């Protein structure tokens, strides 16, 4: 087994020269982030898994043409986003809202990670996860992608610009607009929920 | 500064240079509007943390080294035709997309294709353009290719002197065919899980063969 602390650049060079284990290492290192990106873009596990498989096969085939001008991860993200875009166009619809499996509080109780986490907190977190997924799915694609890259993959503005091949100022504009829309939608939802809770409380007291 | 959102955004993500950071901090001390704006953006960032991704098992079959040697004459004829057609389409248009349909039953003329893939030039519009290449793959074709490829993987113990090694260009064509099949499957409808799994497995194996062939030079 080869050392696992090699940089992406070293592994790419070795894989390009025919070292299969180096490419396997790149896959092990990047499969989880690539799956997360595909899942949050498409909203369905099965499709995300297909995209992951296809992305690495394409990356593997494209290694001889990868010149290292961008980071390997940026290149891989771009391949993944292109595959997701193809998928969305092919299906001719917006991303599916990924809903957590089950909404039964009894099921949630089994998932408590610490005794301090109440069922109510767990339910609240699930609902927030769903609300975020819903709000993100409704964003224009370019704003959603910029937020995904920044918030869930920790890329710098410049790295996002490199990945999406667009100007730095465009990245910032998309991010800002996307965050502003999300903020309004999530605040509105929280206000609605608060009012619903009040109504329920008044109805039962 | 209230009209400039870029400095505030850079400050939010700690990407300001020191001078800009000081300028933003100084502004925030005196501007309630921007303080509220920043608090709102921080709050939405916290909300975003709630969006979980389900655990998933790896979908990747690790590459393992193999040293295959085989002959084009053992590859089904449709593969050669498809490879040539795909390469032609790639050369003419830069790229292709695949549309697929699944035949419902075997016709009287022979085994039904399980998959028909039509490459369409993207540049001129997916829906308007006429297909420039079409391949039809029967289950027998797929099985023949699977057998041949698997045989190749397991064939290392046999004498190789009578066999002719493929060029890397040949492998590129074969890989292109696999890509085309994958694309066609991805865009097709119906329950094709088994077929997808078979073509995916075959793609990985072909990629391994191609890579080990390249490495063996």
Describe this structure as you would to a colleague:
- Chain A has 2 domains: 1-93, Rna Polymerase Sigma Factor, Chain: A (Orthogonal Bundle); 117-205, Arc Repressor Mutant, subunit A, CATH 1.10.10.10.
- Chain A has 9 helices and no strands.
- Chain A has helices at residues 8-16, 20-42, 45-62, 72-91, 105-110, 119-137, 141-152, 157-164, 168-204.
- In chain A, helix 3 packs across helix 4 (72-91).
- The longest helix of chain A is centred in the last third of the chain and has 37 residues, at 168-204.
- Chain A is elongated and about 70 Å long.
- Chain B has 217 residues and is mostly helical.
- Helices cover 51% and strands 10% of the residues of chain B.
- Chain B has a 3-stranded antiparallel sheet with strand order 1-2-3.
- In chain B, helix 4 packs across helix 6 and helix 6 (168-186) runs antiparallel to helix 7.
Number of helices of chain A: 9
Order of helices and strands of chain B: HHHHEEEHHH
Can you identify the CATH superfamily of the largest domain in chain A?
RNA polymerase sigma factor, region 2, helix turn helix motif
Largest interface: A-B, 52 and 42 residues
| The number of domains of chain A | 2
Name the helicity range of chain B: 40-55%
What amount of the residues of chain B lies in strands?
Answer: 5-15%
Which architecture name of the largest domain in chain A does CATH use? Orthogonal Bundle
Overall SS class of chain B = mainly alpha
Can you count the beta strands of chain B?
3
* Overall residue-averaged pLDDT value of chain B: 64
Strand content of chain A: under 5%
> What separation lies between the terminal Cα atoms of chain B?
62 Å
Number of strands of chain A: 0
Task: Give the SSE map.
The complex is a heterodimer of chains A (205) and B (217).
Chain A: H1 8-16, H2 20-42, H3 45-62, H4 72-91, H5 105-110, H6 119-137, H7 141-152, H8 157-164, H9 168-204
Chain B: H1 6-12, H2 18-30, H3 32-48, H4 77-93, E1 96-101, E2 113-121, E3 133-138, H5 139-153, H6 168-186, H7 193-215
Antiparallel strand pairs in B: 1-2, 2-3
Helix pairs in contact in B: 4-6, 5-7, 6-7
């Amino acid at each position: 087994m080869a050392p696992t602390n090699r940089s992406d650049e070293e592994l790419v060079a070795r894989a390009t020269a025919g070292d299969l284990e180096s490419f396997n290492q790149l896959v092990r290192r990047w499969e989880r982030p690539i799956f997360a990106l595909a899942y949050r873009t498409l909203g369905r596990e099965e499709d995300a898994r297909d995209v992951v498989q296809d992305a690495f096969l394409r990356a593997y085939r494209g290694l001889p043409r990868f010149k290292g001008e961008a980071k390997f991860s940026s290149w891989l993200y771009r391949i993944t986003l292109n595959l997701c875009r193809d998928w969305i166009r092919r299906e001719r619809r917006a991303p599916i809202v990924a809903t957590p499996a089950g909404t039964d509080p009894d099921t949630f109780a089994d998932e408590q990670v610490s005794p301090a986490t109440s069922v109510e907190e767990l339910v609240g977190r699930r609902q927030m996860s769903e609300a975020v997924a819903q709000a993100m799915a409704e964003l224009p694609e370019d704003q959603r992608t910029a937020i995904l890259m920044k918030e869930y993959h920790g890329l710098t503005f410049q790295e996002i610009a490199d990945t999406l091949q667009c100007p730095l100022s465009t990245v910032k504009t998309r991010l800002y607009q996307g965050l502003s829309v999300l903020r309004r939608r999530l605040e509105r939802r929280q206000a609605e929920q608060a009012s619903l809770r009040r109504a329920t409380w008044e109805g039962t007291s | 500064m209230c009209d400039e959102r870029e400095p505030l955004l850079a400050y939010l993500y700690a990407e300001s240079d020191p001078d800009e950071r000081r300028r933003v901090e100084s502004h925030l001390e005196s501007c309630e509007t921007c303080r509220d704006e920043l608090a709102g953006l921080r709050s939405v960032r916290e909300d975003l943390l709630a969006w979980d991704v389900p655990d998933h098992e790896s979908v990747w079959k690790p590459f393992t080294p193999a040293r295959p040697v085989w002959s084009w004459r053992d590859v089904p004829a449709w593969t050669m035709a498809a490879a040539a057609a795909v390469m032609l389409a790639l050369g003419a248009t830069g790229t292709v997309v695949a549309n697929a349909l699944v035949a419902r039953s075997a016709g009287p003329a022979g085994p039904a294709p399980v998959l028909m893939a039509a490459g369409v030039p993207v540049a001129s519009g997916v829906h308007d353009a006429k297909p420039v290449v079409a391949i039809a793959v029967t289950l027998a074709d797929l099985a023949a290719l699977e057998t041949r490829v698997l045989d190749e993987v397991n064939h290392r113990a046999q004498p190789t002197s009578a066999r002719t090694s493929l060029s890397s260009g040949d492998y590129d064509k074969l890989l292109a065919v696999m890509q085309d099949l994958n694309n066609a499957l991805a865009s097709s409808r119906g329950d094709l899980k088994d077929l997808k799994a078979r073509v995916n497995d075959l793609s990985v194996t072909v990629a391994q063969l191609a890579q080990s062939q390249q490495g063996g030079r």
